[in-house]
Amino acid sequence: MDKFNKQILCELKSNARIPNTELANKIGLSPSACLRRVQDLESSGLIKGYRAVLDREKLGIGFLAYVMVGLNEHTKKSQEKFESAIAEASEVKECHNVTGPFEYILRVEATDLKHYKTFHTDVLGTLPQVATITTHVLMESCKDERE
Fold it and tell me: What CATH number is given for 63-137 in this structure?
């Protein structure tokens, strides 16, 4: 990982749609050398992909929450069943298995509080593995590097 690759990653992180010629000019390489480096970073798996950042408000997503979930059994089978069920829930955008007083942190997006309540009751509330649910409603984000 030399300075050019670090600069490439920094530029692509802020604007993945930057044209190769512009990227090459910014970091001081020829377009062919820059393209070769980007392709190497992609093929090595360091760059896993590119994505569009969507405007949640324009999509009607007005409710975001981080939900802490505790399981009633601390077994691999229980975790697998929970993870399988959560993979099907469209409201769950992230699911992380963590250490501490609960097993999972979920990032949940819903249109509004009513929609979240339905998810809370009809999805999380019906999973037999779930023992506790603690919801932290997102009021504002002062930093979010996904955007």
Answer: 3.30.70.920
